[in-house]
Amino acid sequence: MTIAAQIKKSNRRRNAGGVFPDAGKIMLALGNIFQKIDSNRQLVCWLYLWLTNKLDGLRELAQIPDLCRIPSSQSCQPYTLRIFKDGAQSWVEYAINYTHHHSVIWLWQPIPTTLNGLFLHVLQEQGYDSPLLSRHEKNALFRLITHQTKKTACLAPHSISPKNSLYRYISSCIQVDAELSTLAKSVLLTPEQLHHQSARYYQTETSDRLRYRIFTALNHYCERLSTQAKRQGWLTLFDRAVDASTIINPMRDEPILATYLNKNYGEIPQYRMHWEQNSRTFLQDPPTQMGSTRNLADAVIIRAFSQMQLALNVLHPAKRTTLMTKIAYYNHMTYMLALQFIALTGSRPTHAIMIERNRCYDGKYATICDKGRIRPLWICSFLQKQIQCYLALQQQLLVQINCHPSKLPSSLAFLIDENSHALRPLTAKDIRLFWQRYESNSVPYQLRHHFAQFALTQGYQAQLSTQDLDQLMGHSRFGEHLGSLELFPRFSERYIQHLNHLASRLQLKEFE
């Protein structure tokens, strides 16, 4: 296998929808860590670093943060944990950083269900605002993390995952998780670890929604390990003595979820404790909007296209009319078709305003040149009808102005000068000026942002995965470009179903 082929294979393997790491071997490697660390406080610190993907790049003692417990009344701070008491059930939350408008903010994230019991026991014995580990304990933990860890006696005959694979388990699962959104991945991974780095700039979600997505994903990754521990009979590896008579086992115990974790499906709110007149209340913090700020509301797009349609109806030529009137009607239709094309395919109006004649196949599929690369497009049923109607009118006008086929532009849609009858291809400036006649506070490129956001929020109806969203948007890496990626009819049918729903959502009207 050549180096190029190896890079292609590696890129495809790390993409959403790839194969998850071997849960059996990872579980044994994690069990080995449980056996090697005697102190529950050190184990909690190790698990925190593991959950936050900080183990793999740890090279210095200073990279191990001083974890502290703070009261629920204080704002979230870096490297802190708290116990949120939701009625009868308490839950541990840890600080996680989000990038918001080029700055970093810290918000609370619930610990995965599997690990809550262990974290809760350790924090309940920990005072406020004091480091979880002493200097001596941090040194011991640093040596364990950075040095080769031998297998415990009971695991000696068995094959377990190497240290690096265990350290990268969470990040590897995040990368291949087809259900986790791109924005959630951008919170958990570094920009270099993100498979498609630009995809996060097109979507927006609230912090409550992202908190739910992250909690659900981390629960899934931990449950894969607990399932293997039960199936293979290795539960005793994870026994932790908390006192002379009590043993906690994260892989065996099944704690009850706190009420706030499943109160609102799809969201987990953040609360802050407030003391007033010797009574405490929990106030819900308003969610923070993360990601793109360029998304257009459905109502804005519907209104703009509706006004364009009304203007088109006014220009509709009578049975006996001048050629100039027909050309004006045709040009207006050209602008509308180009904007509908952008709205329903997500193409970049600065790169490809319309498909070319020799790159449209059977009316259902096409390819465009996007950022210097050819990528596929799927054309919904509505857009197919619009193109057919447009081409019929175009052909009539070409016959009337006596234009030879050899003089046609490569693009499927073009403008005709009302006086000279010269043919001129559309430009990004043309459609921007046309769009701003009806919607002056935005630009056509924002239709691409709406396309991405609609796929994120409504893609579940067509069972779209994160990779499907990236495929529709044209995000790809070496090894995923056209010619290297296998596409099956089942996926194309799913894409067309989703795009048909988008056309219906925007209430677009067919040309007459």
Over all CA atoms, what is the radius of gyration?
29 Å
Structural class: alpha+beta
Mean pLDDT: 90
Query: How is the biggest beta sheet arranged?
Result: 4 strands, mixed
The general outline is elongated
Strand order of the largest sheet: 1-2-3-4
Number of helices: 16
β-strand amount = 5-15%
Low-confidence stretches: none
Helix content: 40-55%
Euclidean distance between termini CA atoms: 56 Å
Concise synopsis of the structure shown:
It contains 16 helices and 15 strands. It has helices at 3-13, 23-36, 40-51, 113-124, 135-146, 163-167, 169-176, 182-188, 207-232, 298-315, 323-345, 381-400, 428-438, 446-458, 466-473, 489-505, and strands at residues 68-69, 80-86, 89-100, 103-110, 204-206, 240-241, 247-248, 271-276, 279-284, 289-291, 360-361, 365-370, 373-378, 414-416, 423-425.
